[in-house]
Structures are given as C-alpha cells and as structure tokens.
Amino acid sequence: MTIPREVVEVDDALLIERSLNEPEIFATLFDRHAPLLHRYVTRRLGPSEAEDVVADTFLTAFQHRGGYDRSRPDARPWLYGIASNLIGRRRRTETSLYRAYVRSGVHPAELSGSQVEDGVNTLAVNRPLAQALLKLTQADRDVLLLVAWAELSYQEVADALAIPPGTVASRLNRARLQIRQALSTQGER
C-alpha cells in the first residue's frame, strides 16, 4: 500500500495519532526514522543485533503508540529511548563488541561485508575510545552516545531516557571527563 503524500509530510505526533485508526500509517514513522536508528544501534551493538533491536523498537512503539505524548511532534527521542532500553538488555553484547574493537581495531560490520557509512565508524580506528567507552557506566554511556552518535539535544536525551535535563548534563560532563582522561592516559603510553 502506498502512503498518501499528505501523510508523509505531517509531524510524527499526528502520524502516531492517525495510526490508532489506520495502523498501516505507522509504516511512515518506520520509513522516516529506521535508517538513522539502525545506524546508531549498529554502532552500539554491531550489525548482527541491529536488525533485531530496530525491529523490536518499532514493534514496542507500535504496541504503545496509544500512550505517546502527542504534544511532542518529533518521535525520535521516544524511539531512541525504547532502543536504549533494548540495548541495555544486551549490555554483554555491547561490552563484547567494544572489547573486540580494542583487540582487533575492526568494526564487525567490516568483517561481515556490510557498510557502515564513511565517518561513522569512529571505534574501528580508535581503540582507545572503545576502551574508554567500556569503562563508562551504562547510564553515562547512553547519554554520551545519544548526544554524540544520535545527535539528540540535551532535552531530547532527557525525554528519551525519562530523566531531568540536569541529569543529562551531569552524566554527559562526567562521561566526557572520563573519556578525556582515558584518552590522555592512552596518549602518554
């Protein structure tokens, strides 16, 4: 089924609201946000887990769309919040991926032949960064990577993780400080 152009051009909140009566419209939300969400999850968990997490994110979003706060026109924070929760459940996978980066310096997407677009694969060329990310708490890592890789604002991260903006700022400052310290220590070696 083709989604009408007037549906494609509306904000996310209206799409979600309309999807309550016309569930197929929710596919527009997927088309709009899945590629960047997939890129983010691939960077966090690798390509083998990304498909499942993105699919589960949209399944969860679809199932809970009735509770979406329709005063928020952009669903990205909501979707990244769901994805962050799912990533948190795969903490061991993320930790193993970072350890693999540290050992090999190669992103698993490169090994599998899939393409992680240019400029995105920071960890594959930066073992010290991967090692520094390993040392962060899950909460600090989520905030840092939602800002750095998903390019969410402080308020969007706060919305995604259901925490106050001040907590976002303090976690981000702590994470940045720990990363800087870890990288400077690596540089001294």
UniProtKB/TrEMBL annotation:
Pfam families for the chain: Sigma70_r2, Sigma70_r4_2
- Tell me which InterPro entries the record gives: RNA_pol_sigma-70-like (IPR039425), RNA_pol_sigma-70_dom (IPR014284), RNA_pol_sigma70_r2 (IPR007627), RNA_pol_sigma70_r4_t2 (IPR013249), RNA_pol_sigma_r2 (IPR013325), RNA_pol_sigma_r3/r4-like (IPR013324), WH-like_DNA-bd_sf (IPR036388)
Q: Which domain of life is it from?
A: Bacteria
Nucleotide-binding found in the keyword field: no
Q: Where is the RNA polymerase sigma factor 70 region 4 type domain?
A: 129-178
The keyword Transcription regulation belongs to this UniProt entry's keyword annotation: yes
- Which keywords has UniProt assigned to this entry? Sigma factor, Transcription, Transcription regulation
Q: Show where the RNA polymerase sigma-70 region domain sits.
A: 29-94
What family does this chain come from, according to its entry? Belongs to the sigma-70 factor family. ECF subfamily.
Annotated PANTHER family: RNA POLYMERASE ECF-TYPE SIGMA FACTO, RNA POLYMERASE SIGMA FACTOR RFAY-RELATED
Q: Which NCBIfam families match?
A: sigma70-ECF
Query: What protein does this entry describe?
Result: RNA polymerase sigma factor
Q: What is the lineage of its organism?
A: Bacteria, Bacillati, Actinomycetota, Actinomycetes, Streptosporangiales
